[in-house]
């Protein structure tokens, strides 16, 4: 079975590229004359160099003030991505509410360019490790493992002409990448492109190391808004003179300049190009996984990571150089978002506690407006593009997430303030059709999975302006199947709480308390963000959660209330229902209605006794509420509640002091003066859920957001 192409882990190419002669590569007197000398390339340590100024500030470029949202081509289309497929994706996202929901960026991943720059006529020369062959000043091949070596390539990156053909826009010829940027912009979207801080990309195309100014100027001129900047140092394992095996860390300048420094170089080149061309700045996303540690003895003495106060304060373990792993320490100094874990697949475990969740929880300081921990592309709604899942492809590595798991992935990322960048196939069933071994299927996202991405309540948590990431409530889970609880403070004073069942096989009850959450006060209204159900929490928040599922709540402090001042004042009052424009609670049919009549809301007339109510204190501390009618059929009827939510409230001429259905708690919001009227028997509250005159008045579960549960005095 085919497996997904690796994005960032270096490996030897499946086939060896034909070796190029020095003449064919353009390596001669002219090429060498155009290349920077080895010393200028940062080859080898420079212990006598002046250190970079201390106090490097955070990037703070005004971009990505909330976590970026969008789509990336890799998980579904890999290196075969085409211009037509990206156009189809842009059209689908614009037509199906994704752009409106916030997913406004489409990014092409690795594989978009030719295998050589336009300064060469043939593809890159690779060595046996899949690394680009480097040379000395005399044109001789070198290993580069001592930090030396010259990159022989020159010129500009070339969009693959077959998959990204040139077009004409407004009478002007543009290349295939420029066209896609224009097309995305025409739909109100942004366009992203992939590059690396190494000599080659993860799939062996030319990287941007040593070509930062050229590539940045091209990207800005092409209209690129977002760059996914990866790190793929191919090469042999390196054993240092200290006897330590540092593993594969790259070659040449990849060994003498930290990932931090290489990202900063490109980000600054982008800013310079934007300023020169008078175009907007470009958001930078670091995709470098924290698996590379660098080689301390080869890191240049003037590398800026050595003096960055954030990096210095964090320190470096033995055998690790500053400015490498972990990226969660320093990413916000040089980029807008960065990967904090390895490549993820469609299994939910990748975002749970034993996956990337634990890692992102370790680096909350990297989360702020303009800086975000990236938990990798989302698999919600992703369908296996390598074969028909369950028929032609049964590899567990390609099993799609269930709808429950998709909601869980989205919830965890939202709580962590991670970018929401999907790798699912955002195209129509027709555009995403595949045929293999006599089977035909579509990888296009299903409607119910699309709805996961468009859940506005969950997106709002991810995009919350306070930019405070989630923290773990209580002790870490004892094992990979144990439940966990996350909380996240929100800008409006609310708190997001996520109850997670990590068990893939069994339903579990997951609970927390207001005390454990550190939430003071008498209670909170709670909305579950996937079902929309509401209620109040006064002590324990608990849910029965299905396997690999979540329950996600937004908690809002209940208003501070006191016993209503109208209780026992001996007067009759009109009660206006919230959201109705001042319609009054009345006996439906007025005082001529029969005993046992239900209630509605209607136009307030101060002389209508059927719209006037008095509140009498009972000996047990509850309240009796009666109307002002005094007719043969209505004689100061007592407000009475039903047993079930949605049932109509009514009035009875009979008062039973032992019936809790005729007893009420009437509390007044100290800030607004609004009354909440709660039935003692059921805990349900008096509610006018509809706003038109003569609409029924019922009892419903408490919901702080329900306007009809808030009653005001009309006289």
Task: Give an overview of the whole structure.
The protein is an alpha+beta fold. The strands form 13 sheets. An eight-stranded parallel beta sheet has the order 13-12-11-8-7-2-1-14. A six-stranded antiparallel beta sheet has the order 17-18-19-24-21-22, with helices on one face. A three-stranded antiparallel beta sheet has the order 25-33-34, with no helix packed on it. Strand 29 (613-617) and strand 30 form a beta hairpin. The chain is elongated and about 115 Å long.
Question: What is this entry, summarized?
Answer:
The chain has 715 residues and is α+β, with helices and mostly antiparallel strands. It has 16 helices and 37 strands. It is 18% helix and 21% strand.
Q: Which outline best applies?
A: elongated
Strand order in the sheet with the most strands = 13-12-11-8-7-2-1-14
The gyration radius over C-alpha positions equals 32 Å
The residue ranges in which pLDDT falls below 50 over 5 or more consecutive positions are: 1-54
Class from secondary-structure proportions? alpha+beta
Report, as a whole number of angstroms, the end-to-end distance.
Answer: 76 Å
- Total beta strands: 37
Estimate the helix proportion, in percent.
10-25%
Biggest sheet, in brief? 8 strands, parallel
The number of helical runs is 16
Could you tell me the strand content as a percent range?
A: 15-25%
């Amino acid at each position: 079975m085919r497996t997904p192409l690796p994005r960032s882990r270096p490996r030897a190419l499946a086939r060896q590229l034909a070796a190029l002669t020095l003449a064919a590569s353009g390596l001669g007197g002219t090429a060498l004359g155009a290349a920077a000398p080895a010393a200028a390339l940062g080859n080898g340590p420079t212990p006598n160099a002046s250190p970079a100024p201390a106090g490097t500030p955070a990037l703070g470029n005004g971009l990505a003030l909330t976590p970026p949202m969008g789509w990336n081509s890799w998980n579904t289309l890999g290196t075969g991505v085409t211009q037509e497929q990206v156009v189809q994706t842009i059209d689908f996202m614009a037509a199906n509410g994704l752009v409106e929901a916030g997913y406004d960026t489409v990014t092409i991943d690795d594989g978009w360019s030719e295998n050589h720059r336009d300064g060469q006529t043939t593809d890159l020369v690779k060595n046996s490790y899949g690394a680009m062959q480097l040379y000395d000043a005399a044109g001789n091949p070198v290993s580069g493992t001592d930090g030396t070596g010259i990159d022989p390539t020159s010129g500009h990156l070339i969009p693959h002409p077959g998959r990204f053909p040139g077009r004409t826009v407004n009478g002007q010829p543009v290349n295939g990448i420029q066209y896609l940027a224009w097309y995305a912009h025409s739909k109100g979207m942004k366009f992203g492109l992939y590059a690396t801080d190494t000599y080659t990309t993860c799939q062996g195309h030319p990287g941007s190391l040593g070509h930062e100014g050229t590539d940045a100027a091209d990207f800005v001129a092409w209209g690129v808004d977002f760059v996914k900047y990866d790190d793929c140092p191919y090469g042999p394992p390196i054993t240092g003179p200290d006897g330590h095996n540092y593993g594969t860390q790259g070659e040449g300048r990849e060994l003498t300049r930290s990932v931090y420094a290489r990202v900063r170089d490109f980000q600054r080149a982008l800013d310079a190009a934007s300023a020169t061309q008078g175009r907007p700045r470009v958001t930078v996303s670091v995709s470098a996984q924290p698996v590379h540690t660098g080689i301390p003895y080869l890191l240049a003495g003037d590398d800026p990571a050595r003096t960055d106060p954030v990096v210095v304060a964090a320190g470096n373990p033995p055998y690790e150089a500053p400015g490498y792993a972990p990226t969660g320490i320093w990413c916000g100094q040089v980029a807008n978002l960065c990967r904090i874990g390895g490549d993820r697949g469609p299994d939910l475990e990748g975002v749970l506690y034993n996956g990337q969740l634990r890692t992102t929880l370790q680096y909350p300081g990297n989360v702020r407006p303009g800086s975000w921990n990236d938990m990798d592309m989302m698999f919600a709604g992703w369908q296996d593009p390598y074969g028909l899942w369950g028929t032609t492809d049964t590899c567990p590595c390609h099993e799609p997430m269930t709808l429950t798991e998709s909601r869980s992935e989205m919830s965890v990322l939202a709580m962590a303030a991670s970018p929401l960048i999907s790798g699912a196939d955002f195209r129509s069933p027709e555009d995403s059709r595949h045929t293999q071994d006599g089977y035909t299927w579509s990888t296009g996202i299903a409607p119910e999975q699309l709805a996961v991405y468009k859940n506005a309540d969950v997106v709002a948590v991810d995009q919350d302006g306070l930019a405070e990431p989630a923290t773990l409530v209580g002790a870490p889970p004892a094992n990979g199947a144990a439940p966990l609880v996350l909380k996240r403070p929100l800008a409006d004073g609310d708190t997001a709480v996520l109850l997670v069942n990590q068990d893939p096989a069994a339903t579990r009850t997951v609970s927390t308390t207001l005390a454990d959450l550190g939430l003071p006060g008498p209670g909170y209204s709670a909305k579950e963000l996937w079902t929309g159900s509401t209620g109040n929490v006064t002590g324990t928040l608990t849910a029965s959660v299905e396997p690999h599922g979540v329950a996600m709540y937004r908690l809002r402090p209940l208003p501070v209330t006191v016993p209503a001042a109208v209780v026992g004042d001996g007067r009759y009052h009109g009660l206006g229902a919230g959201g109705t424009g001042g319609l009054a609670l009345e006996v439906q049919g007025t005082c001529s209605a029969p005993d046992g009549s239900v209630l509605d809301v209607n136009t307030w007339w101060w002389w209508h006794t059927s719209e006037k109510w008095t509140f009498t204190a009972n000996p047990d501390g509850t309240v009796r509420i009666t109307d002002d009618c005094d007719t043969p059929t209505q004689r100061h009827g007592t407000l009475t509640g039903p047993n079930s939510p949605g049932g109509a409230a009514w009035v009875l001429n009979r008062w039973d002091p032992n019936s809790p259905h005729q007893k009420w708690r009437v509390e007044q919001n100290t800030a607004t003066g609004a009354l909440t009227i709660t039935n003692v028997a059921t805990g349900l509250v008096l509610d006018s859920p509809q706003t038109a005159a003569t609409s029924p008045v019922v009892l419903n579960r408490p919901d702080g957001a329900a306007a009809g549960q808030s009653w005001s005095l009309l006289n």
